[in-house]
Specification:
2 copies of one chain form a homodimer. Chain A is built from 11 helices and 15 strands. Chain A is an alpha/beta fold. Chains A, B: This is Gfo/Idh/MocA family oxidoreductase.
């Protein structure tokens, strides 16, 4: 079998991280990299800031130059968070008969918020004989797949809590701005009202994924976003919050069944949580038979986790039956230490 | 769609637990129950010690009476731990064109120790258009699937530790005897030498499953079993260990790659661990990028966990492409709170 061929669309922190990860792996080649603006035309090793001897130093190109019929086995699209924004890119790839994995959070379960676009993508994928998966660390693993895997040991469930307490300190300037680090409470409320502060994207997707797998129809999904106001000065490498300003965002959500909360999501994210005695971690607490009381501490860092999930799900996505799929349709995620080709079904290989 | 039809083969603690769990669920019926000896002919509610109003009070029967062509969608076989012992039963079911889930530990990944029998079962399943899965709490979830799911967030891995520290106190007389609770160290050594003390069955299966998913070829799998000798008197409901006698079994195993340990398994199981300050739990510790440091404490109790895993994997097994499958081939495990029929693909339904 020829090496698995991968194109990366979006050479920001996520796409670049996936390129680096893939270049250290066996049986897989990065055959195309897409971006816009000043990166176009640059050798990929320049953009990655590192050389990878056994890999070709391809040039960053435009989508028009790279996305040709069956130009690769899969394209990793890391450009957007929202289904509506990622739609045209996914469509272009699928119409060129190439599988897609995207880190767009809403694409982890697009029928939660965009059922019509999800339906269109499913049809397009089937028509073209390829698969589309949205994944990442969250949604994609911590607040949905990990929860569901633990419910596998349960006879019955009364209530589920998924809690992800994470530090924003490892992230760069873009995340600091997106999450409102250092702004005043008034600015935060303004940003929340006008939609410029998104906070975590993914609760409706994670909750809907859990509900669908469990086989329950929820009455409602409620979501809230509040400022985490610090009472001490906090300083991270790329962001700073003076006492009285915003050091992070507390996101909560509920999945309601028969008027009662069945699924609780709690996701406070802030810079320098340790400074105020907050211990970071990923928690799954299930009130059921049996009880589940799981913690992974410290939390899996979002950046590396999303990079790894998108790369590690390549075989499952290539092997999947054509269509729009989600993490609950595919075999369990896992790392790949060996040859990527060993994980691909012969009949599913495109090029 | 008609209700999912299930036959249970083996009405011991596991099979009875599965029957009870299924009788509380929607869209699924227990249409047959098989045992030998004195239970044959008894109404199932008598054997379960409980009535389940919306279920038929079927009689426990022999395999010959119950296993007929397409008599059910799936048979849950809970009679054995070893592939060689379960083989004829699985064969009989498969030749009657019915899917199989078995709690036999070695069947979680039978090619680890019985590659020829695994090959035969795979062929039989394909010839008859059905699937065979071995699962349970361990192997099946805690020391393999949960480990693999967490590796999904990893770019690279240097070493994996899976640790399950559990209490044997909830188990009955049979387990107390199997694990040598209360015997002398000399008796333990004797039982270990003559093979009458098995300890935990499943390390080669869990380690092989992890290695196969990661795509690595191991040089060797090593395994050890030692007595946990208590220095205080311990007393559980069905077993007792005086100071100086055996209160449990310490099982360890290693998966070796290029002369170095890649996968470590550590599974001490004993009665009344709390009495000597041992905290029970399920641990996944991955030295990689990123690090994983997960604990579920207390551990998922083995009985209810195995019952739930076997029942919850029914849809994935019925829906699977024909053949011998394992937990790494199928969609992620999860609980089922809704109608079982909603989880079954139309074309996969047998009766």
């Amino acid at each position: 079998m020829k090496n698995v061929k991968v194109i990366i669309w979006g050479m920001g922190a996520m796409g670049s991280g996936m390129a680096k990860m893939l270049m250290k792996k066996t049986g897989v080649d990065v055959v195309g990299a897409i971006d816009i603006g000043q990166k176009v035309g640059k050798p990929i090793f320049d953009v990655l800031g590192e050389e990878f001897p056994n890999n070709e130093n391809i040039k960053i190109s435009t989508a028009e130059e790279v996305i040709k019929e069956k130009a690769a086995d899969i394209v990793l699209i890391c450009t957007d968070s929202f289904t509506a924004k990622a739609f045209d890119k996914i469509k272009k790839v699928v119409e060129n008969k190439i599988n897609v994995i995207t880190s767009a959070e809403e694409m982890a379960f697009p029928k939660a918020q965009n059922p019509e676009l999800a339906e269109k993508l499913d049809q397009l994928a089937k028509e073209n004989g390829v698969s589309i998966l949205g994944t990442g660390i969250n949604p994609g693993l911590i607040m949905d797949v990990l929860v569901l895997v633990m419910t596998g040991a349960c006879e019955d469930i009364h209530h589920i809590t998924s809690r992800r307490v994470n530090s924003l300190s490892p992230f760069g300037k873009a995340v600091m701005e997106e999450q409102g680090i250092g702004i005043s409470v008034a600015e935060f409320e303004q940003g929340k009202a006008d939609g410029s502060l998104a906070g975590h994207v993914g609760f409706p997707e994670s909750i809907s994924m859990i509900a669908e797998a469990l086989g329950v129809k929820l009455d409602a999904i409620n979501q809230s976003m509040d400022a985490i106001v610090t009472d001490v000065d906090r300083k991270a490498p790329y962001g700073e919050a003076k006492a009285g300003s915003v050091a992070g965002v507390s996101m909560k959500a509920s999945g309601i069944k028969d008027g009662k909360e069945l699924i609780e999501m709690d996701h406070p994210q802030q810079i320098e949580p340790e400074q105020v005695g907050v211990k970071t971690g990923d928690y799954v607490i299930i009130d059921g038979n049996p009880q589940v009381n799981l913690v992974n501490s410290p939390e899996i860092e979002g950046g590396v986790g999303t990079i790894a999930m998108c790369v590690n799900m390549i075989p499952q996505t290539i092997n999947a039956r054509p269509g729009l799929v989600s993490m609950i349709d595919l075999p369990i995620p896992h790392a790949i230490l060996g040859d990527f080709r060993d994980q691909i079904h012969e009949e599913a290989k495109i090029v």
